[in-house]
Design brief:
Strand order of the largest sheet: 2-1-5-6-7-4-3
Shape: globular
Helix content: 10-25%
Number of domains: 1
Distance between the termini: 43 Å
Number of strands: 7
Strand content: over 45%
Number of helices: 2
Radius of gyration: 17 Å
CATH topology: Thrombin, subunit H
CATH architecture: Beta Barrel
């Protein structure tokens, strides 16, 4: 009996082909640069960058703020863990995590995005991103 991960490994490439093989550039802080929480200036430098195939979804979302209800566009990126691991191995074979963190940034469709929600579901990263 196939597992959900095996099914996703077959379905995700077909969805990417439908969307004309979109990619996202993931930018992160290298492990060699550290930040001091007591320092007033941030010394974090986004110096690690690699491209990962993805699936994206732009959908309306109901937002409630200050007694008002309105709709806003939410963008989700879906990245397979295997694709992320492969891209990390190409860039630096010593520092491979296969994880997405809140400090990571994404360049997608000529816009820079920061993650607001991150989930890993069956080897697939579901990342809600907000524009910067």
């Amino acid at each position: 009996m196939p597992t959900i991960r095996q099914i996703l490994k077959k379905v995700v490439p077909k969805l990417q082909a439908i969307e004309e093989n979109p990619t996202v550039q993931l930018i992160r802080i290298s492990g060699t640069v550290t930040s001091n929480p007591f320092q007033t200036q941030k010394n974090e430098v986004y110096d690690v960058s690699f491209t990962v195939p993805c699936i994206y979804s732009e959908q309306p979302e109901i937002v409630r703020a200050a007694g008002n209800i309105y709709t806003d566009k939410a963008t989700y990126l879906f990245i397979q863990t295997d694709d992320l691991l492969e891209a990390e191995r190409k860039y630096s074979p010593d520092n491979v995590t296969g994880k997405v963190t809140k400090k990571d940034r994404f360049i997608f469709k000529e816009g820079r995005y920061a993650p607001s929600e991150i989930q890993e579901i069956f080897g697939l990263w579901k990342i809600k991103v907000d524009g910067e």
